[in-house]
Design brief:
9 helices, alpha/beta, 4-stranded mixed sheet, RNA methyltransferase activity (chains A, B), 60s Ribosomal Protein L30, Chain: A, RNA binding (chains A, B), homodimer, methyltransferase (chains A, B), Alpha/beta knot, RNA methyltransferase, TrmH family (chains A, B), SpoU_MeTrfase (chains A, B), about 20% strand, 2 domains
């Protein structure tokens, strides 16, 4: 197979354009980088349309169906969104449509209200996966989960559980209809988290790094909770707080 | 006061050079950016040598003793390590010497073994502050806490508690001499963290993002623990795991 050697090859431009959310949504495509992520995508039913690699050796064995292009190191560097590219990337299809709202008995849910930092969102998706959360719901104003930094921070967890853009109001109602309690988080309103017992099912809402969870959601929750601060920090990082609360609330059978 | 208007002013170069660890250590100086951090540094006995701002209005009122220089927006942009500078930065003295090793009765300690990501280190220092940890010890191979990204992620917590470069082996011994149990963290060796009760005093060791805590330390601990993974994630982000464990282990009186 002939290698693409020119950084002016149209493929290079096309892939770079997918670094922008608008273009991803227009084309219904997103890009992942690195052997581990490509392997995870292939393993978890992501539609991988094309794999671009510096070398055949670096391609996961389960790649059937995906077109393969080989490129030089320089071309890879030009396409990559990282400073030290890992020699492989893949173009994947975005999920075709929003999944319908459906709440499981004893399900556990993480609702994310306007988190802006890609590292924070990715880390929370990874933690939600680790704790066995049923789904992560991304409210309006939350950073796009198909942003390259988010995907990197999920370490593949983006492909392990449903991560759905949705209307937080509808999801709160849907949980409450099924008697699944909804917990809001606040800097200091409500109850210390340790006063709440582990739950058979629950939804947890975490909010924007600066503004927290919007007041309108905090008014609709069953209870608002916070992780107490004992030292001089003003608050915890949102992905750390989410980790503490998810592991605290989840009842492990 | 006359504003510095030229990006060729020697001050600009001098401040930019402090983005490098070697230069910081050579000059005994580090740089912080943003109103909140400068205010925190002034409030917590950091020796602030110089404040550089776009405007007198943006300078914290408690700045006595620090020299002030005004600069244009363009000069600030040139000096800043962020894409959207906040209009103020300060040059501070590094702590003059390593603080002596001293363990408090009922103290709680976070030992960090080779964490590389500045965001992770900064977030852990912030969490250690929030939970009321006595000190954070940075073992060999850990990213410099005076790196601008670390400082930003600490949100000021770097100035709230001792953050000390040290020899993890000596700190393990010092804790054990005072009957403070030392817990190592491992992906799956040892005990689930929930099997351990909250402690009057403890030390927790967390490790490098890829390699974890070095085996030689795991052999010297009183017990090794892990946060169980229930989903498909291979591991937790180290700063999330540290948050869960610190809040779990700390006994709140």
């Amino acid at each position: 197979m002939k290698k693409i050697e020119s950084v002016k090859n149209p493929l290079v431009k096309r892939i770079k354009r997918l670094q922008k959310r608008k273009q991803r949504e227009k084309e219904g495509l997103f890009v992942i980088e690195g052997f581990h992520l490509v392997e995870e995508a292939l393993r978890h039913d992501v539609e991988v349309q094309a794999i671009i690699a510096e070398d055949n050796k670096n391609i996961p064995s389960n790649h059937s169906g995906a077109g393969i292009s080989l490129v030089t190191e320089q071309v890879m560097k030009e396409m990559s969104s990282t400073e030290t590219p890992q020699g492989i990337l893949a173009v994947c299809s975005l999920p075709r449509q929003e999944k319908p709202l459906s709440i499981k008995e004893r399900g556990s849910y993480l609702f994310i209200d306007g988190v802006q930092d890609p590292g924070n969102l990715g880390t929370m998706i990874r933690t939600a996966d680790a704790v066995g959360t049923s789904a992560v719901i991304l409210g309006e104003g939350t950073v796009d989960p198909y942003n390259d930094k988010v995907i990197r921070a999920t370490q593949g967890s983006l492909f392990h559980l449903p991560v759905i853009k949705g209307d937080i109001e509808k999801w709160i109602e849907a949980c409450q209809t099924k008697n699944i309690p909804v917990f809001g988080t606040s800097l200091n309103e409500g109850t210390t988290h340790t006063a709440i017992e582990a739950q058979n099912g629950f939804a947890l809402i975490v909010g924007n790094e600066g503004a927290g969870v919007q007041e309108k959601w905090l008014e609709q929750t069953d209870q608002n909770i916070y992780v107490p601060i004992y030292g001089n920090a003003e608050s915890l990082n949102v992905s750390v707080a989410a980790g503490i609360l998810l592991y605290h609330l989840k009842l492990f059978h």
